[in-house]
Amino acid sequence: MHKCWASFRFLPSHTCGNPGLIPRGIIHGTRYNVGDKIRYSCVMGYVLEGHAVLTCIVSPGSGASWDFPAPFCRAEGSCGGTLRGTTGTISSPHFPSEYENNADCTWSILAEPGDTIALVFTDFQLEDRYDFLEISGTEAPSMW
Predict the structure, then answer these.
(1) How many whole angstroms separate alpha carbon 87 and alpha carbon 68?
(2) Buried b (16+ CB within 10 A) or exposed e, 39-77
(3) What whole-number distance in Å separates Cα of residue 8 and Cα of residue 116?
(4) Cis peptide before 96, with omega less than 30 degrees from 0?
(5) Which residue has the higher pLDDT, 111 or 25?
(6) Cα separation of 121 and 124, whole Å?
(7) DSSP 37
(8) Cβ-contact 32, 17 below 8 angstroms
(9) Signal peptide position in this chain (predicted)?
(10) What stretches of the chain adopt beta strand conformation (E)?
(11) Exposure on the CB side of residue 85, measured as CA atoms within 13 A
């Protein structure tokens, strides 16, 4: 007669997986385990918005994940765009330098229904009678 007794336990994943390519972007790094880092850059004529370096970290309850969402590449000097994910960066063209006259920048931030979007301004300047900021969404628009 043969007997067998075994026990097991769940071991969380220690890999984040490939975070994927971004349009007009380049990914540097091919290892996706906890502690590994990858770096994003953009092709000529585009600038990176978001975190350039992502680190694979241990996430409580879910194994491993990247510490930030993948960034995106926008055309150099362009104005406006669409942001998705849990974080993002909005800036005027050529920031911190001044931008051209008559720049019309429109940004869209996409979120799930019920989510709250918080805007945190770290450097904000308007030129009287020429610049304005309008924030609109499901609530009444606000203008400054």
Answers:
(1) 8
(2) ebebeeebbbbbbeebebeeeeeeebbbebbbbbbbeee
(3) 41
(4) yes
(5) 25
(6) 6
(7) E
(8) yes
(9) none
(10) 25-28, 37-42, 46-49, 53-59, 63-66, 72-75, 81-83, 107-109, 134-135, 142-143
(11) 15
CATH entry, 13-76, from 3.30.70.1350, 2.40.50.140, 2.10.70.10, 3.20.20.140: 2.10.70.10
Tokens of 113: 């229904």
For residue 120, what are the contacts with CB-CB under 8 A and spacing of at least 6? Answer: none
Block residue for tokens 């491993």: 64
What tokens appear for 127 in the block? 């030129």
Nearest to 55 by CA among 42, 72, 38: 38
Q: Domain residue spans in the chain?
A: 13-76, 77-144
- Identify the pLDDT of residue 34: 92
DSSP category for residue 144? -
51-107 confidence digits (pLDDT tens): 999 999 998 777 899 999 999 887 776 678 777 777 777 777 776 677 778 878 888
